[in-house]
Amino acid sequence: MFILNLHSVNVYFSTNTVVQPFNLSPWNLTEDFKQTIDDCIQWINESAPEWIKYIEYLETLKNGIGKYSLEDIKTIPHWAAQMKERRGLDFLETFPELSDWYKFCQQLSDNTLK
């Protein structure tokens, strides 16, 4: 990802990734997810090194992780509840691998994170 400062406004350029709805952006993930991406990159390097473009894509995702604010993270449980109510989509059933991260978001939302 590279950043261009245009009239005091940062413009972010990166590879194709979800940025809207904001709540599904990988930028909201916490630093511990970087290790998972590193593990994937290591596997690709060992098993399919010709996938260099995909490695570059994963590096871009990894570099974007953690660009959230705590105020943004606090909104995620409410958004997930709305998705369940409106569309019957349960966040944790859909993304069970994100359960610890979702708990973190919920604790921030409930102001119970210590």
List keywords for this structure.
single chain; 114 residues; mainly alpha; 2 domains; two-stranded antiparallel sheet; 6 helices; 2 strands; 53% helix; 9% strand; disordered N terminus
Could you describe the 3D structure shown?
The protein is mainly alpha-helical and 114 residues long. The protein is built from six helices and two strands, in the order ββαααααα. The chain folds into two domains: 1-68, no CATH class; 69-114, no CATH class. The chain has helices spanning 33-47, 52-64, 70-74, 76-87, 91-94, 99-109, and strands at residues 2-6, 9-13. Helix 1 runs antiparallel to helix 2 (52-64). The longest helix is centred in the middle third of the chain and has 15 residues, at 33-47. The model is unreliable at 1-5 (pLDDT under 50).
SSE order and pairing:
Layout: E1 2-6, E2 9-13, H1 33-47, H2 52-64, H3 70-74, H4 76-87, H5 91-94, H6 99-109
Antiparallel strand pairs: 1-2
Output the radius of gyration: 16 Å
Poorly predicted regions are 1-5
**Between the first and last Cα atoms, what is the distance in angstroms?**
32 Å
Shape: globular
Helix and strand string, N-terminal first?
A: EEHHHHHH
Looking at how many chains there are and whether they match, the oligomeric state comes to single chain
Estimate the helix proportion, in percent. 40-55%
Give the strand order, joined by hyphens, for the main sheet. Answer: 1-2
The helix count comes to 6
Structural class: mainly alpha
Mean pLDDT: 84
Largest sheet: 2 strands, antiparallel
Number-wise, the strands total: 2
Q: Compute the number of structural domains.
A: 2
Beta fraction of the residues?
Answer: 5-15%
